[in-house]
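ok so dumb question maybe but i'm new to this and my supervisor (M.) told me to 'just get the structure for Transcriptional activator TraM' and walked off. so i did the thing. is this what she meant?? sequence i used:
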Amino acid sequence: MSDQTPDNAPLTIQSVRDLIAKEHNLLLDEDDPILVAVTINRAALDEYERLLQNHKQQLSKDMEEHVASFALEVRKSTNSLLSKAVKANIENCLSVINEHQGQMNNFLGSVRGLAIFAGVMFCLSIAVSLSVIVWGS
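this is what came out, is it supposed to look like this??
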């Protein structure tokens, strides 16, 4: 009977016989019917251990799937937030560029106006200089 239980089992028929002999001073034969309970309990424990192992494997698999799904959703959310932030930053930069472009257009308009004014003043200066030269002071 003890050959049927694994070597690493914590409860073997021989260990039960030894325990009963030690605790109760009662020697059990190898074919004592009470040892059937040990075999039945060991079988139930072995089955329970198999169920726990299967459950543990299934939980690990489910957890990996949930973690992967969660990581994917986090990645999507992060990418979405990053895209929105980049888009907002680009829009902000474009608005600043447009503002500067407007200021530059105003500046260029002022420079053109001053260039025209300087040209007119130059022409007047030449005209006055020629008139002084031609007609005197």
